[in-house]
Amino acid sequence: xxxxxxxxxxxxxxxxxxxxxxxxxxxxxxxxxxxxxxxxxxxxxxxxxxxxxxxxxxxxxxxxxxxxxxxxxxxxxxxxxxxxxxxxxxxxxxxxxxxxxxxxxxxxxxxxxxxxxxxxxxxxxxxxxxxxxxxxxxxxxxxxxxxxxxxxxxxxxxxxxxxxxxxxxxxxxxxxxxxxxxxxxxxxxxx
Length: 191
What we know:
This protein is α/β, with parallel strands linked by helices. It is built from 5 helices and 11 strands. Strand 1 and strand 2 form a beta hairpin. Helix 1 packs across helix 2.
């Protein structure tokens, strides 16, 4: 299987191409305000340098969040547009699941810093194949969970995306948020 992974949800732009669950090539850059310009340019750069025909790619996967509201929307929209042009379907995977698959642990939780004192959390037990729900909690509630890994730049998503079991975590390529955006919260206040 040939697939491309795109991640614009965090502080980096990550593009990677895989064949049979092996990383063939990638581009990883700091993500700033010009992410939309860097995305198109670096997508083309990666494809050209690896020498692949985009029509031969079997699957397109995007990190659907949670993460940067704008970053998630840019990544999802871009990959959906590419797939629409190719007549293929884009798939999504949550930031929680990518991070969890990247660790060599059996039972733990992934925490993601949200705005303010809030964190998103999801529990994983790979030994029993049991996975918790996505929850929003307060920072002080993190101590109620055992073995929590907070998602940061030290967790490499490309490790998890190379594992063949990642396909079990795929979903639709639709942005995933645990809370409303600031614009939605401000709109609700006015209503």
